[in-house]
Amino acid sequence: MNSKFTQSILAGALSFFLLLSSSAVAQYSRADSLRGRLGPERTWWDLKHYDLSVEIIPSKKSIKGSNKISYQVINEAKLLQLDLQEPLAITSITQGGESLAYKREGAVYWVTLTKKQVPGALEELVVQYEGIPKEAVRPPWDGGITWQKDSKGFDFIASSNQGIGSSIWWPLKDHPADEVDSLDMHVTVPKGLMDISNGRLVEIELGKDTDTFHWKVVNPINDYGVNINVGDYVQFGEKYAGEKGTLDMDYFVLRENLEKAKVHFQDARRMMKAFEHWFGPYPFYEDGFKLVEAPYLGMEHQSSVTYGNGYQNGYRGRDLSGTGWGMKFDFIIIHEAGHEWFANNITYKDEADMWIHESFTNYSESLFLDYHYGKEAGQAYVRGTRMNIVNDKPIIGDYGVNQRGSGDMYYKGGNLLNMLRQILQDDEKWRQILRGLNETFYHQTVNTAQVESYISKQMGLNLAKVFDQYLRDARIPIFEYYQQDGALHYRWISVVKDFDMPVDVLLDGSIKRLQPKTAWQKLAGAPVQEFVVDPDYYVGVLKSRE
Questions:
Q1: CATH class of the structural domain 478-543
Q2: Which has the closest alpha carbon to 145: 168, 174, 163, 126?
Q3: Extents of the domains making up the chain
Q4: Which of 13, 21, 45, 194 is deepest in the core (most CB within 10 A)?
């Protein structure tokens, strides 16, 4: 028997503790709308460049600095929205040396412009700010600034702010739909410490009591990917011969962890080999790749991936799949670096579409195993992660209010993608689809419709109802069947209207593809002695009689 089918009785007998989608209407505040919407005060101008200067003052847990915002005028306007969250405060906004009037509404600053904004023109705003930023409580999930000390007593500081917003520590247009084209960062820290941020180090300006690290990013970057990491760092690295030439891979770790990092961070090279194979060239050769030790678990900051998994395999030493395969790699290195393709190269336009980031990156874990240990290793891993799925609500959230959907976007989303591979039955074509996504949407912001359309077109199938079922409904489809009068009767239940998806089954030793509908179908023939649904389909299975 095909090896994967030997596990399928357990996998196919999926629990029917399937929760229906909630009918309750979520309540959102004006603050939610201001954070998540693309109102006219955000859309008349297109970001081009940030020149961010930040001084880190550990003794006071405070920061101060400025952001020079370069933008192109799309439409003439006089009112502009900037974002900076309390307790930080903007102290001045100028354009062309002239002070501008502004009014605060929570985390939003309404800026009144005096200069005529001519469509096509390039303009600049200079924003000064200061204060004590929100301290991260449970980073990276409840983000802000983490203020810690390492074991030697040196300051160990980092930012993390996905979801809560980059405006938790610097002023900007805090919305994912408009990525800045490039970025300069000047981070000032107490003497003796280093700052590691995005892109490449241009220079270090030495002062009496402080040093300023100038970093430059030449590729578009999502705002939540911008980060600071301050500590007593030491550096090592390697030159990687990749698909686009030589890639600088640099590693920054606390001095005390250098020797074990030299061994453990070999997973980074293995990651790059696997993901360039599956997804195409690393998207930021010009900015290099960095893995940076941080005082929290880790995050996918662009070209500056942060790491805090304790130099151990698995997720904090635990296999999230329960199969053993999850202990073959350091989860944080593989998962967070996978986001360089899905999150940093291809970025959602709205928080509601966060599955584009997390489903594909969850799936990347199994593809890493597939590349290094064989296909069945990857398949077993992704099937094993189903134990973490709760089917509580749709994966896609509500639009325009900075609202993500169910956490099932990780494991359920990964299983959805794995299932699409099974439906396609052409592994090389599937690889080209994944690579094609990264090529077609290279350095772009996208929505779910674009991703769905691309995959459907490349697979040559209408997958609209499949995506509706797995992304927009909390339930999983149930394959119901029974045998009667020498025939196998089968149908889909617990599905969206007009659901249409094939399924592969094992019938007395032979694999056959069925095309169930919501109405009963019949497969004539001798009574089936052995019947198993392919475990690579994330569906429920119910044996019954009508």
A1: mainly beta
A2: 168
A3: 232-473, 478-543
A4: 45
